[in-house]
Design brief:
The chain has 298 residues and is of the alpha/beta class. The chain has a single domain, classed as Dihydropteroate synthase-like (TIM Barrel), CATH 3.20.20.20. Helix content is 40%, strand content 13%. It has 9 helices and 10 strands. The strands form 2 sheets. The protein has an 8-stranded parallel beta sheet. The protein has a two-stranded antiparallel ribbon with strand order 1-2. Helix 1 packs across helix 2, helix 2 runs parallel beside helix 3 and helix 3 packs parallel to helix 4.
Length: 298
């Protein structure tokens, strides 16, 4: 078990808000406004349905809402900017009015990020780690928004065809280190950055398992880790379960990720995963307390 890091792991976002990730693991609830996302594509494509779903996630305990209008599932085709904006903006606009829960926008396009931030979004979740659009880093830095830098090998359309690593943990660490440097050089403050190892993004089953087993090796990068394991394909492959039968596998992966030091999880099923988090945190607190009490007297 990896004890919770002693260092301050607050995440600063727009408006002077700081999420206390050092105090407890936070939940990012998934809101897919897409016809083709791997888990719930088409369920919330209409704005009203997406908004209702988002508000349910808030009631269940989501700390952030991650709204995406372009699927990044394996094999997904890119979406035109105008279509992404058409799907996304009505949802972000209404959620910003209805809830104080911070809104994250899952996009790789600077123009989409810019419009969403203008409407009240607080964080940009960029699966390309600011690489696909050369303006994205500038938009994030200028706005004062938080940002998620995620590792992905390749692009969504082809990333799962033949992923290869000499050592997946070392390569993900090196990539995230480079992207952290690039982000700060572009003017983004370190305290506004989350890192994400990109479970399922250009990785086979073994790669995903190895990353989960060694997530603590990313802690020296000095930024809170976000893990997105919810309903992922490797869980389905291991358990032989369809997408809607992967809750228990997701719960197990989330528990391991938290024990390894992850401070935020991105999930579809907020209520049951909140129970998992509370249970794991109770165990970790007990272990830390017992360790202190068992220290030999000097």
């Amino acid at each position: 078990m990896t004890p919770y890091p002693a260092r301050d792991e607050r995440l600063a976002i727009r408006g002077g808000t700081a999420l206390p990730l050092h105090e407890r693991v936070h939940i990012m609830g998934v809101v897919n406004v897409t016809p083709d996302s791997f888990s719930d594509g088409g369920h919330y494509l209409q704005s009203d349905a997406a908004i209702r779903h988002a508000m349910v996630l808030v009631e269940q305990g989501a700390d952030l809402l991650d709204v995406g209008a372009e699927s990044s599932r394996p094999g997904a085709d890119p979406v035109e900017e105008a279509e992404e904006l058409r799907r996304l903006l009505p949802v972000v606009r209404e959620l910003a009015k209805r809830t104080s829960v911070p809104i994250s926008v899952d996009t790789t396009k600077a123009a989409v990020a810019e419009r969403a931030l203008d409407l009240g979004a607080s964080l940009i979740n960029d699966v390309s780690a600011l690489q696909f659009d050369p303006r994205m880093a500038q938009v994030v830095a200028r706005s004062g928004a938080g940002v998620v830098l995620m590792h992905m090998q390749g692009i969504p359309k082809t990333m799962q065809q033949r992923p290869f690593y000499a050592n997946v943990v070392d390569e993900v660490h090196a990539f995230l280190s480079d992207r952290l440097y690039a982000a700060t050089q572009a003017g983004i403050q370190r305290e506004m950055i989350l890192i994400d190892p990109g479970i399922g993004f250009g990785k086979n089953i073994e790669h995903n398992l190895k990353l989960l087993a060694h997530l603590e090796k990313l802690l020296p990068l000095g930024r809170p880790i976000l893990a997105g394991v919810s309903r992922k394909g490797f869980i389905g492959a291991i358990l032989d379960r369809p997408v809607d039968g992967r809750l228990m596998g997701t719960a197990a992966a989330v528990a391991v990720a938290i024990m390894k030091g992850v401070r935020m999880v991105r999930v579809h099923d907020v209520a049951p995963i909140l129970d998992v988090i509370k249970m794991v945190e109770a165990i970790v607190r007990y272990q830390e307390s017992a360790s202190v009490h068992n220290q030999p007297a000097e």
